Amino acid sequence: MMIPTKDAYDELDRAYAHFNAELFNGQLPPCLITLQREKKTYGYFSAERFFNQGDKSTTDEIALNPAYFGIIPLKEVMQTVVHEMVHLWQHHFGKPGRRRYHNREWGDKMKAVGLMPSDTGKPGGKQTGERMADYPIEGGAFEQALEKLLATSFKITWADQRPGRHVPAELLQAALEGAVDGVDPENIQAPELTEPAPSKQTRAKYSCACETKINVWAKPGLHLICGECSQRFQEVE
Question: Could you tell me which residues come within 8 angstroms of residue 142 by beta carbon, excluding any fewer than 6 positions away?
Fold first, then answer.
């Protein structure tokens, strides 16, 4: 029997456990993985975000954006998982930068697990900063660990078929055009184009039929009287 919630979270838990063993020597504590549609964000880490209502213990959150699952290669989804796991590692065993700053310690750990930090996501980018991406180091620890995971027929079963406004337009377009390896454009629905709402009329023209031919502009639906002929103005369409 298909159980979508169990499928989705079991797969993510499995990926976390695998990379924890392969890249962090199993030292990372369990965390709560959530799915969050944060606009143009692959994922994020939030330290001690949840608490147990029974014993008051806390756990960290790794949030992943499911809007990307169906439009980027599985490898990039797993990069996001490991990227956030490095934040979790630093929270427990290092010294995180202030607020969202990705410091040198974080960057060094990223390289140790096989991901090169880069603010552009490409070679040559800055390795520290507020908003950081990464790319796999060829033949590095991440690629080796990912190869082992994929050899077990690992996959992400459920993906968002209407990612729409939650992802960059150029990324969505590339997926729809079949330009992304491993992505089937037939599984993705293009966002519907909606007509802009007609502008609401704020002023109307009123004319009087007397000899002076007086015209005035005012709020629609008024009953105006001409001071010259004492006749009502007529609202002109």
Answer: 23, 78, 79, 82, 113, 114, 115, 136
Please state the domain extents for the chain: 2-185, 200-236
Q: Tell me the residue length of the chain.
A: 237
Q: φ, ψ for residue 136 (rounded to 5)?
A: -65, 140
Show the CA angle centred on residue 68, arms to residues 74 and 197, nearest 5°: 160
Residue 105 CB-density burial (10 A; 0-12 exposed, 13-18 middle, 19+ buried): middle
CATH code of 2-185, in short, is 3.30.2010.10
Rounded to a whole number of angstroms, the distance between the first and last alpha carbons of the chain is: 63
Q: Contact at 8 Å (CB) between 220 and 204?
A: yes
- 3-state SS, residue 36: coil
Decide if 52 contacts 117 (C-beta within 8 A): no
pLDDT digits (tens, 9 = 90+) for 182-226: 899 999 998 875 455 556 667 788 788 776 678 877 888 777 788
- Distance in angstroms (rounded) separating the CA atoms of residues 233 and 237: 13
